[in-house]
């Protein structure tokens, strides 16, 4: 059901080469990332873990094209995105990335179907095309009977499923999930993780940032960060 | 560092599609509707600004229209000359030499001279003005009796509403006929149908041949102290008839003193061939009269000049109104900017989400700018509606004439839209300048 053009596992989709990120906080310079090299191939399901302050969020921001690395290179697909300007980065996010956040981050004044349409709108899609695609994705996450509900009328699990549909609507190369189950009760959390498993089994590349071991177990590769460096990078067998 | 871009080309920016515009506008309305009360209070500034401007313009336009109408009644191609009692002579007569006959004013010779020497003069309308009581049996009215010539109605654009004006023949025959002003009819002939009946002035009877349309008193009557008319009660008789009935000398009895004056003509209306020659002709007439009158015993009124002066006054009025409008729209605009800034801060998270989902800076700018414009345009629209309705009530209840010029609502609406853009730009840029990472982290 979900289109997946990037099924060949050999092709690297995300390639970081010595990525560094330093912040200046007043007189103090913080080295959040101190040279991360990482390669993620199409179809992988990677969890990124580590204690707080290890640079998880910073890495996610770089991976999500929300932030540029201070040094090093980041290839997304075949293109170096580490030096793109704000405008091109926005286009890149809209075209190649799907975001899923801990707090769902749905737009409150929009209905379910309109929320799913947002990325397509910024891609310049036509009205009919958008609606068709959004309804299709709502069906995939099992919310086709809630199309015109507002986010506050939905449960947390349902909201997160809307967010997943929204992340998939532009058919991204990579899905970036930041603690997707962090705000959910265990039952809904398991349901959501099932959705991720399902997506991965259809060939979607998923990067999951979490500090929860049980969540990370769903992935088939675990990257652990410590002090802005990759500490371990092990291939596991996902559930 | 070189940036190799192998495959990826940014998708061309979406063009101006009606569908996109509709969606952005719909989103803006939806968002503003979420905070109905706040939006309403925000636009009140614009509403009152626009509404007061349109209403005041309408009232001003109505007032100046009335004044201009009166001036136009005098005829924009006309020059009006009036006899004025020279001031130093007035003193002499006040000192009370009773046998003294005051001799002043315009003469028949003046008429001949003007006709002979000034090229663009088409018609000259001489008239004498007397005050007397007009009687019908026991009903009487203090009246201004205008002795004039048959072409008076055409030259002064004064309409005959019943019967006819007197003719050349009646003029030559010194016939005892008269035309009444419409305002006399209800007093003298309460049953109506005055044509064919008779009225009495002094010892003579005049047959009523027609009725003229009612007309407000001359706008410059205040400046003319000589004839302190309060109402425009007028009756018209042929000039030749008046000459035989009244002679040249008019007697006035004024609080004990007895005053005689000889005035050949009280008023001359000179019609000029075309409006653009009025000013030049007026100067020529002035020069001519100055040569032949030792004293300044006449005045020249050029309705065109009065009209221009009235227009100038109106312009000043409009400028004042415009400034008030500008200030109120400025205040309204600041209100909008204020609320948009608050909205941007409040919706930092939404901005972050949209940026993460691929919105470019200009998308964010557009979104917030559209919201600001919707606010101000809605305010403008409500203001226009109120501004069109209020003058209607003013004219209904206060009896003032109001005119809503067709362009003022459009102008007001356009300006209010522009206010939205001007005061929406800064908040929109603030929203777009936010760092997506920071915005997403915002609680």
Plain-language structure description:
The complex is a heterodimer of chains A (239) and B (443). Chain A has helices at 56-63, 86-96, 112-122, 127-140, 156-168, 186-201, 213-216; strands spanning 12-25, 28-41, 45-49, 71-76, 79-80, 97-100, 174-178, 205-209, 221-226, 229-235. Chain A is of the alpha/beta class. In chain A, strand 4 and strand 5 form a beta hairpin. In chain A, helix 3 packs across helix 4 (127-140) and helix 5 runs parallel beside helix 6. The longest helix of chain B is centred in the C-terminal third of the chain and has 44 residues, at 303-346. In chain B, 36% of the residues are buried. Chain B has 443 residues and is an alpha+beta fold. In chain B, helix 2 runs antiparallel to helix 10, helix 2 packs across helix 12 (361-397) and helix 2 packs antiparallel against helix 13. In chain B, the strands form two sheets. A six-stranded mixed β-barrel of chain B has the order 3-4-9-6-8-7.
Layout of secondary structure:
The complex is a heterodimer of chains A (239) and B (443).
Chain A: E1 12-25, E2 28-41, E3 45-49, H1 56-63, E4 71-76, E5 79-80, H2 86-96, E6 97-100, H3 112-122, H4 127-140, H5 156-168, E7 174-178, H6 186-201, E8 205-209, H7 213-216, E9 221-226, E10 229-235
Parallel strand pairs in A: 3-8, 3-9, 6-7, 7-8
Antiparallel strand pairs in A: 1-2, 1-4, 4-5, 9-10
Chain B: H1 18-34, H2 36-74, E1 78-83, H3 87-95, E2 101-103, H4 108-117, E3 121-136, E4 139-148, H5 152-155, E5 160-163, H6 168-172, E6 177-181, H7 185-188, E7 198-201, E8 204-212, E9 234-238, H8 239-246, E10 249-254, E11 257-262, E12 267-272, H9 278-292, E13 298-301, H10 303-346, H11 348-356, H12 361-397, H13 407-433, H14 436-441
Parallel strand pairs in B: 2-11, 4-9, 6-8
Antiparallel strand pairs in B: 1-12, 1-13, 3-4, 3-7, 3-12, 5-8, 6-9, 7-8, 10-11
Helix pairs in contact in B: 1-12, 2-10, 2-12, 2-13, 10-12, 10-13, 12-13
């Amino acid at each position: 059901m979900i289109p997946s053009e990037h099924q060949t596992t050999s092709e690297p989709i995300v390639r970081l080469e010595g990525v560094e990120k330093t912040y200046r906080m007043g007189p103090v310079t913080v080295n959040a990332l101190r040279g991360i090299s990482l390669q993620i191939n199409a179809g992988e399901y990677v969890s990124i873990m580590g204690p707080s302050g290890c640079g998880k969020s910073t890495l996610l921001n770089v991976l999500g094209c929300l932030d540029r690395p201070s040094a090093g290179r980041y290839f997304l697909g075949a293109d170096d995105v580490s030096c793109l300007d704000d405008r091109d980065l926005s286009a890149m996010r809209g075209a190649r990335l799907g975001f899923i956040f801990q707090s769902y981050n749905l737009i409150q004044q929009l209905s379910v179907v309109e929320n799913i349409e947002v990325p397509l709108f910024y891609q310049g899609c036509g009205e009919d095309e958008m609606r068709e695609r959004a309804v299709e994705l709502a069906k995939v996450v099992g919310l086709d009977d809630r199309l015109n509900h507002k986010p506050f009328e939905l449960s947390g699990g349902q909201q997160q499923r809307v967010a997943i549909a929204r992340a998939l609507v532009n058919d991204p190369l990579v899905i970036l999930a930041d603690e997707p189950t962090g705000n959910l009760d265990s039952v809904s959390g398991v349901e959501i993780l099932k959705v991720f498993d399902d997506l991965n089994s259809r060939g979607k590349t998923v990067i999951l940032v979490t500090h929860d071991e049980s969540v990370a177990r769903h992935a088939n590769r675990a990257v652990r960060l410590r002090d802005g460096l990759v500490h371990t990078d092990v291939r596991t067998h996902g559930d | 560092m070189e940036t190799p871009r192998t495959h990826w080309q940014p998708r061309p920016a979406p063009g101006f599609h009606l569908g996109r515009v509709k969606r952005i506008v719909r989103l803006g309305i939806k968002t503003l509707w979420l905070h109905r009360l706040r939006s309403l209070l925000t636009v009140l500034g614009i509403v009152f600004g626009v509404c007061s401007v349109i209403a005041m313009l309408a009232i001003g336009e109505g007032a100046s229209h009335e004044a201009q109408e009166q001036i136009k009644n005098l005829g924009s191609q006309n020059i009006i000359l009036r006899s004025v009692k020279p001031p130093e002579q007035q003193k002499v007569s006040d000192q009370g030499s009773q046998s003294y006959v005051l001799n002043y004013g315009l003469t028949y010779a003046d008429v001949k001279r003007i006709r002979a020497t000034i090229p663009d003069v088409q018609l000259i309308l001489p008239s004498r003005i007397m005050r007397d009581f007009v009687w019908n049996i026991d009903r009487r009215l203090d009246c201004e009796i205008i002795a004039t010539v048959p072409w008076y109605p055409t030259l002064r654009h004064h309409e005959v509403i019943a019967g006819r004006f007197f003719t050349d023949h009646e003029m030559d025959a010194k016939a005892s006929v008269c035309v009444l002003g419409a305002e006399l009819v209800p007093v003298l002939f309460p049953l109506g149908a005055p044509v064919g009946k008779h009225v009495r002035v002094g010892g003579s009877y005049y047959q009523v041949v027609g009725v003229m349309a009612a007309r407000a008193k001359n706008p410059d009557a205040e400046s003319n102290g000589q004839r302190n008319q309060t109402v425009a009660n007028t009756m018209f008789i042929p000039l030749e008839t008046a000459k035989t009935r009244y002679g040249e000398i008019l007697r006035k009895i004024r609080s004990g003193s007895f005053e005689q004056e000889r005035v050949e003509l009280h008023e001359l209306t000179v019609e000029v061939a075309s409006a653009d020659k009025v000013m030049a002709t007026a100067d020529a007439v002035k020069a001519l009269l100055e040569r032949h009158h030792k004293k300044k015993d006449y005045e020249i009124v050029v309705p065109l000049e009065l009209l221009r002066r009235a227009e100038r006054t109106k312009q000043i009025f409009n400028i004042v109104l415009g400034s008030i409008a500008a200030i109120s729209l400025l205040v309204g605009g600041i209100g909008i900017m204020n609320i948009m800034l608050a909205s941007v801060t409040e919706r930092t998270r939404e901005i972050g989400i949209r940026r993460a989902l691929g919105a470019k800076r200009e998308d964010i700018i557009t979104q917030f700018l559209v919201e600001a414009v919707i606010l101000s345009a809605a305010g403008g629209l409500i203001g226009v509606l109120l501004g069109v309705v209020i003058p209607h009530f003013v004219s209904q209840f206060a009896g003032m004439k109001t005119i809503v010029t067709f362009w003022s609502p459009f102008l007001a609406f356009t300006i209010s839209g522009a206010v939205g853009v001007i005061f929406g730009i800064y908040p929109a840029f603030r929203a777009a300048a936010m760092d997506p990472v920071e915005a997403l982290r915002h609680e």
